[in-house]
Amino acid sequence: MYYKTKDEIELIRESSLLVGKTLAEVAKVIKPGMTTLSLDKVAFEFIMDSKAVPAFLNYNGFPNSLCISVNAQVVHGIPGKYELKDGDIVSVDCGVVKNEFFGDSAYTFAIGEVKEEVLQLLRITKESLYKGIEMAVVGKRIGDVASAVQTLAEANGYGVVRELVGHGIGRNLHESPEVPNYGKRGSGLKLQEGLVIAIEPMINMGTKGVKHESDGWTIVTADKMPSAHFEHTVAVGKEKADILSSFEDIEKALGREF
Ligand code: MG
Ligand code: MG
Hints:
Elements: H1 6-29, H2 36-49, E1 53-54, E2 66-70, E3 73-75, E4 89-98, E5 101-110, H3 116-134, H4 142-155, E6 159-160, E7 166-168, E8 175-179, E9 196-199, E10 202-204, E11 210-212, E12 219-221, E13 227-229, E14 232-235, E15 242-243, H5 248-254
Antiparallel strand pairs: 1-4, 2-4, 3-12, 4-5, 6-10, 7-8, 7-9, 9-14, 10-13, 11-12, 14-15
Helix pairs in contact: 1-2, 1-5, 3-4
The chain binds magnesium ion (2 copies).
């Protein structure tokens, strides 16, 4: 486990805020008719203009700067020719590295008129992220974060993805510990100051099962029902978690939450 100094946390904050600004650039242009590849181009250029590097590009061979996952796609979707349409939900995950430190955050967008039950999935998934973040304080454990996410999601009848988890973050995109979205209160690693983690609930409207698509990257729900994904990079705090990324610019650009 690598515990960060205050200075290092500030560098992770800078990278994480840049991710939020990049997602806000996406928010400004996302609309029906756009291809997911055109969104990726917006992000790539903004990150390069900001003197940073897209963290996902070439990561284990991933071909783009954003992971874009539409409707039943859970995470790790590859940007391409798909044109967004009214009623879609689109999870956009972004990472950057700047000054040798990574930031990682994700937001799920609603395109045009989205069914109320699907909007509710987005609301609850985002709320479950903040429930998890509330537990990212000194003395709590990873299981407290995990259980807080799981409890809210399952109370709403949703499936919590097991196969993919949050993670430590810093000089690497993925560091230990793993931060699952399911687990037992009071279990797992005890949280200390200096620990920086990405908390990222992936919540399915239907059952928890997922499978790999044949492109080798995209994860989809087994029952083909929609899935949502929200992620913040967070530093464990003494009394309160310090959220290093931000949705503020995204939601300002959208002019609304769901
Ligand atoms: Mg991410
Ligand atoms: Mg992540």
